[in-house]
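Researcher: Let's do a round of design. I'm pasting the structure tokens now; please hold your answer until I've finished.
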């Protein structure tokens, strides 16, 4: 039997920052709205549209028996419309970066620090390109399945005996992510670049 999974934001939308629920655009999501959406889901009366930035479908309206929209959620409740396209994309990408890389090397929320889990745990297309050496080292630490996430490429290179060389298709993915990173903000020292071939990555 097919299963569907839904995620509800029961806090609010439009905050100035991702850390605080405040700001001139901020709106608390009422209990009534949440219950209304839950009830509409049970009746299969929620209209979804694909959000290419979030990479999932989001609820945009509640419809009646004829499929006509009776409650439009777009302008008032969708973050893309509240923040505007550019700021919305920036916020989602930053949250995704924190999800995978953490805020720094001590952040236990970064998924890529857990190097002994199966590679299938994450979709590489969901991971933002690395923005610095630590993020690239974490990415490679994850796919090499070494004993921990290393903060430098040279350090990782000296511990490859703790893991296994990734499959070739995964190395191609990492190569593409590395190249995407260098086309944006990623810059490496000569020492870091020298370690790349041992890690299965061609320097640029």
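Researcher: That's everything. Go ahead.
Model: Designed sequence:
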């Amino acid at each position: 039997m097919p299963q569907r999974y839904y995620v509800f934001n029961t806090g609010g939308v439009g905050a100035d920052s991702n850390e605080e629920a405040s700001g001139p655009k901020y709106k608390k999501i009422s209990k009534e709205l949440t219950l209304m959406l839950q009830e509409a889901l049970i009746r299969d009366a929620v209209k979804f549209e694909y959000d290419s930035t979030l990479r999932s479908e989001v609820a945009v309206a509640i419809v009646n028996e004829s499929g006509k929209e009776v409650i439009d959620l777009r302008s008032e409740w969708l973050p893309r419309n509240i923040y505007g396209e550019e700021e919305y994309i920036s916020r989602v990408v930053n949250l995704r970066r924190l999800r995978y890389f953490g805020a720094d090397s001590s952040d236990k929320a970064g998924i890529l620090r857990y190097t002994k889990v199966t590679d299938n745990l994450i979709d590489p297309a969901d991971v933002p390109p690395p923005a610095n050496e630590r993020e690239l080292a974490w990415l490679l630490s994850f796919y090499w399945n070494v004993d921990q996430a290393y903060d430098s490429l040279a350090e990782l290179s000296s511990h490859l005996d703790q893991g296994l060389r990734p499959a070739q298709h995964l190395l191609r993915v990492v190569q593409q992510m590395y190249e995407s990173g260098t086309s944006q903000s990623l810059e490496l020292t000569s020492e870091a670049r020298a370690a790349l071939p041992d890690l299965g990555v061609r320097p640029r």
